[in-house]
Amino acid sequence: MSSLKPVLVVAGIGAGGGTGGATAIRAALYNAGHGVWKPFLDITPEDVKIITETNIEGSFAFAHEVLSDFKQNEIDTTNGKRGILIFTGATASIRGNTTTSAFAAGKFALRALSQSLAKEFGKQNIHVAHAIIDGGISTPLSRSRCNNSEWDQNEDIRLSPEAIASSYVYLASQERSAWTWELDLRPAHEKW
């Protein structure tokens, strides 16, 4: 998807088989992000616009479409859910820092949205969760930027996409008597 403007998010979900498709959506992940790490006085209106589109407007549009679909689902008898919506956050979701004012503002908003939706839709058997990802993730892009084979091989200092996915599957499989709203993931040696 080239943009997280609400009209394109809605169109993207429709093209992917949601909203009106023959197969029910049972799980959805909002994993969009845009990083702005600058001193406050260097942040531009364009930086704020992109942060707002990604973390607020895009997440609202995505959640609106997904939750509307989930409400049409029958309750899954294995876990008591109509569906699960997971939002990916960051450490900046709970703590700002010297160069994260724009990034943190967006992630704080995303976290607040997920908490509000969890409280509103939990009563309708829809699980909403927020995952804080604290640390570098070993992806092809991060490996090319880091160019440090020791970093990539050492699971004590970076997250693996497979481990994150496993944690998201864990969230999706939770029974309704014990749902997690917020999960905090970090490698063993992450400074926090």
TrEMBL record:
Source domain of life is Eukaryota
Checking InterPro entries in the record gives: NAD(P)-bd_dom_sf (IPR036291), SDR_fam (IPR002347)
Q: Which Pfam families match?
A: adh_short (PF00106)
Family annotation (SUPFAM superfamilies): NAD(P)-binding Rossmann-fold domains (SSF51735)
Position of the signal peptide: none
Question: Which PANTHER family does this entry report, sorted A to Z?
Answer: OXIDOREDUCTASE, SHORT CHAIN DEHYDROGENASE/REDUCTASE FAMILY (AFU_ORTHOLOGUE AFUA_5G14000), OXIDOREDUCTASE, SHORT CHAIN DEHYDROGENASE_REDUCTASE FAMILY (AFU_ORTHOLOGUE AFUA_5G14000)
What protein name does the entry list? NAD(P)-binding protein
